[in-house]
Amino acid sequence: MTSLSTHVLDTGTGRPAVDVAVSLHRGEEELALVHTDADGRARLADGLDAGVYRIVFHPPSPFFRRVELEVELGDGHYHVPLLVSPYSCASYRGS
Fold first, then answer.
1. What's the fold here for domain 2-91?
2. Which of 5, 33, 35, 92 counts the highest number of beta carbons within 10 A?
3. Cα dihedral 21, 26, 32, 34 in deg (nearest 10)
C-alpha cells in the first residue's frame, strides 16, 4: 500500500506555513483536500494504489498562487515537502 504526506515551509518567514490548502488528484478525480497544521504538515492519503498523482498546493505567497506537482508513486510511504517564499519555490522527495 502507498501513503503520502507533505510539509509546507514558508522560507520567507522561516516558519511552517499554517492552514495551506493541499489537494490530491488522480486523473480528474480529487481524492483529498486537507490543510496544513500548526507545524505546516498534512497527511494526504493512506491506502493509495501505485500510479501517477497530482499534488496541488495553494501556498502563502504573493506570487506563487498555485503549485502543482505530478508524481509517480510505488509501494511505501512518500513525503513531498514544498518550500515557498515570495521569490521562489522548491520541492523534493523527502523521507
1. Immunoglobulin-like (2.60.40)
2. 5
3. -20
Beta bridge partners of 39: none
What's the chain's Rg over C-alpha atoms?
13
Closest C-alpha to 45, from 25, 64, 61: 25
pLDDT digits (tens, 9 = 90+) for 45-68: 999 999 999 999 999 888 999 999
What are the residue ranges spanned by the domains of the chain? 2-91
| Contact (CB, 8 A) for 43 and 37 | no
Q: Which residues pair with 71 in a beta bridge?
A: 53
Q: Which amino acid is at 87?
A: Y
* 8 A C-beta contact, residue 31 and residue 15: no
Q: What is the DSSP letter of 9?
A: E
Q: Are the C-beta atoms of residues 20 and 60 closer than 8 Å to each other? A: yes
pTM above 0.90, yes or no: yes
